[in-house]
Input
Amino acid sequence: MSDPMLALQKALVARLKAASTGAGASVYDRVPDSDPFPRITIGEGQTLKDNQDCRRGSEVFLEVHVWSREYGFGEAKTITSEVREALDEAESFLALDGHILDLLDFEEARFLRDPDGLTNHVAMSFRALTQPAT
Output
């Protein structure tokens, strides 16, 4: 059985790239050496067993990060809104390799200033429920 976290990550990257945010943010799993801004990265996560009755499932928590170097949080907040819009009701259209996405919920967005004094950072948390496709 394939990993539900990896399947979700691949689908999110593809969806966010296809949505191509109006603020011009690039989407990465790993940021290239050129270190472009603004950008969206897929970050940390956690997968928990979520078996119920005769269904084997997983509860997946995933972080999506927004990075901006524009003065103030305006650009970062715009991109954050666009990410939320792109993933709203994703369970109705997002296909995962080897899994079925039953639910994708936005949990929270934390707006942070990075210690470098230049970078605005938004850590967005999502929760998903998945089950194997077979």
Notes: The longest helix spans residues 4-19. The mean pLDDT is 89.
